[in-house]
Structure formats: C-alpha cells, structure tokens
C-alpha cells in the first residue's frame, strides 16, 4: 500500500517520516508542496468517490485516492513566504485541507482533528472535561487581574495562546510593572513543580520520555536536559486514547508535568506533533508505529 | 455551551456606562453589523460594536478544571474579522492571532448566546469553503466535482460556477479570477438562497422550484456544520434533479438578507436575547 506524504521538503519531521517509511520498505509518494506552489496549480476533488488530483504546470502530478493513507503536515506558510507565493500557498492549503478532512482513508494529522490546541483556554478546558488534571489558568489583558493571579499562585508560566512562537516562561509581578492592555492578552498558568513527560500516542501505542532539567521549557535551544524512557500509568493511556479518538486523531503528542505526589498534570495535546527529535532517540519506534497505522 | 460555566454580570471592567446586552464583534464598515445594531437599539437593547482585538482585550477567562468564568459575558454576534494587512509586521500578526485565539475561547465558553458560536472544531465551527466537504459534513452525498485552482480554471467553464478565493464572490464566469474554486453543475434553471437563523429558514425568492424543500435542507445543513446563522446557496437544475448545494456562508451579508431582512433580524435578536 502506498503511503502518501504531504508536506514540504524543508520540514524535518515530514522528511524524517518519509525516509523512515521508505527505509522500512513502504512505497512512499511524496507530495512536495513547495514544488507544487511555485507554478500555477490545479486541485480537483471528485465529489462522488473522493478522489483528488493535484497538478501543476511544471508537470508535477499526484493522484490522491479518497481511501488512501496519508501522513500530512499541511500548514499555511504564507506569512513567511514572499508576497508572490503567499496567496498561492493559502489557496492550495484551502483545497488540500478540505480533501484531507473528508478523505475516507487513514490520515495522520488530519486537519479537522479538532483545532482547539490553537486556542489554549478552550484546549485546557476540553482536556479537563476528558478527565485530565490541568493546572488552572487565566487569560487576560487586565493588569490588576494578572497581579491577582500571581498573588494567588506565585510565579506562574506564561505561554502563547495560539501555541505558536515562543517558549513558555516563568514570570512574576515584576514582568508586568509597565504592562497595559494593548500588550495583551496573556495566558498565565499555575507552575507545577516536578519533571516533564512527553508522550507520543500512535493508534493505541504510547511512547513516553521523561525529561529532566533546570529549564522552564525543555525545548529551549541548548538547554541542559536529560531524557529517559518512562512508563505511563495505564489509566492515563486509556484516557489519552479516548481523547485522541474523540478528536479524530491517529497521532498525538502529549505534554505532562509530574509532581512530587506522582500526579500527572496535562499541559497540552498536540494534534500535529513534530516528533523526529524523539523518534531518533527511540530508534524509529514512533515512525514504525505510524507505518503500522498507515499500512496495516 | 459548557454546563459548568459560571457567569459574572455582563458589565465591562473600567466602563461606567450601562452593562451591555449585546456585543457585535465586527468591522466598522460592516453594513450588516451596523443595520442590526440599529434594529436592536431601537428595541431597547444596549448594544456595543467593536473589532475582534478590542473584544479579546476586554475579556478575562479563568479556567479551573471544568469550571470556566468568562468576564464580561454579553450575548455576542460574531461577524467577519479583517485579518492584518499584508504589510503588517510579524509582531502585529502575532498580536492579532493571540487576540483571535482568546476571542475564540471566550466565545466558545461563554454562558450567554453567541452566534455563530466557535467551538472545539474551529473558530467558525465546522464550516469549510469546499462545497464537496460541506455536503459530506451536512450528511449529503456530493456527486459533482469541485476544483481549486490558480490561474487555470477547469476546461469548459460554462459547466461550472466559480468563486473568487480573494473576494469570495460567486459568478458564472472565471474571468478575472486568479485563485478560484469551481463547482461543477448540471444545466441550471436558476439559483436559490436560504437564510437560516436557528431552526428557521427563509427563502429569498418566491420562484417556482418544484417540490424541492430547500428551506428544510438548508436548516439541516447549517445545523450539521454547528452553525446557527448562515446563508445557503443552491443551484436549481433544469430538470427534476435535486438542488445542488453551492455554498454555506457563515457570515451572511446585508444584501443577501435584504429580501427577508425583518424576519432575519427579528429571529436573530430572539436567538441572541432569548
């Protein structure tokens, strides 16, 4: 069975998966959107059977079956592209996400897989509703309310509301001395003392790493951190599976903080994990699991 | 809407004037927002209009487990928000998306009516530009092809109708369109449009379209997409075939609603202020 990989040849995660799948003996068709978008393109959705055809005037042509298997990382890169390329990219993504949302086959990183990760307060509320322990948060542009939250919880974590750009930081009242509403909104979350755990859930399989270090955000470049495999409590895996199924996602990346009482606080569930960094440390086990989901 | 949400009074912090009943989040040049605001104000409703970033910065959201507080929490009509201009700086774009995400959560979790209410599926629920996907999500079986294209419309353009993906205007000709969406059609006798408000559907014409119940079909399609207010455009075939869904617009314009404006405004106000 062919695995269609849709993304760009500059995205390390996409390239990593394509290479791993190919090395494992799978037939891989790489749909490099960077090559398509440089020339006038045409994307046809056949309403009846769900087949799509993507063609560009440069001669690139892809046949995308509605019941096919797809590993997709389709994001709108228009904000970082030249003004000439940006609009073409936005419109191509419109068509592709529509197709991938509706395709009957298996789609890893299906775009419609509940987008609430892009709106952190809603995402955290949703996780709590699924039974996860989630640190309390406040989202506001009101300085008095920021100070009130800090007064109650001490230094807290501030992170972006969309989830893009910028590492989480630990902040105290001093950071908001000259804050005014035009600088908001900010999303504050109670700090959980403990260590980090990252779990990749592929179908029903969980791959977890404990991450120790003195940094607030372990993704910080050059951070002095250590990784080691860790067991996830069974009942938590069950809860993650159920949540992923509700979101319609075959692949999710979960961030937890584990405190001294061994309570697992859920920080977020990523619907399109950039997992290559973790996969290299577990010798491709996550990619292998993805291939089992996509080409059973 | 979450059952656990605890509402605070809908007074805005730092504003001494009367608490607002209805917030219209729109752009200053939105004719629908302006006209609906006048309609509601004339009926004694305290209305405020503001842009999305302003609404986001006025709001505080507290999440403690499943408990949510949104403050202030008036009823909200959500209209299209204009994104940053192409020459906006990266910081300005970032600030706008942070505001958008905050407003999305606040509107999704508010205990008061919000039309159209964002939810966990997206800022505009499950609505999507593609007619094929819209039909699938609405529980219909799409039979006609759809193209997204750049510079090169499908051959034989008369067999399709076309949408400009810049202005979102729909026309019979692809002329002048750089980025387009085209939907195949059979020979049509004309078009019909239905404005859906909650469980009510209002046809904008009285043309004879045979036994096709496009009002009921429109209400069902809009509900399946998680919307409460939308216009649904249908191509009516020349023969006896079923109407073909062309577009669901979650932000009906004033001109679209004009033929049934009083019914739309009245029902919308009832939906927002039950």
UniProtKB/TrEMBL annotation, chain A:
Species this chain originates from: Paractinoplanes ferrugineus
Signal peptide residues on this chain, from the entry's feature table: none
UniProt name for this protein: ATP-grasp domain-containing protein
Gene3D superfamilies listed in its UniProt record: ATP-grasp fold, B domain
Superkingdom of the organism of origin: Bacteria
An example Gene Ontology molecular-function term: ribosomal S6-glutamic acid ligase activity
Biological process according to GO: SOS response
Gene Ontology CC: cytoplasm
From TrEMBL, chain B:
Protein's name according to its UniProt entry: ATP-grasp domain-containing protein
Domain of life, source organism: Bacteria
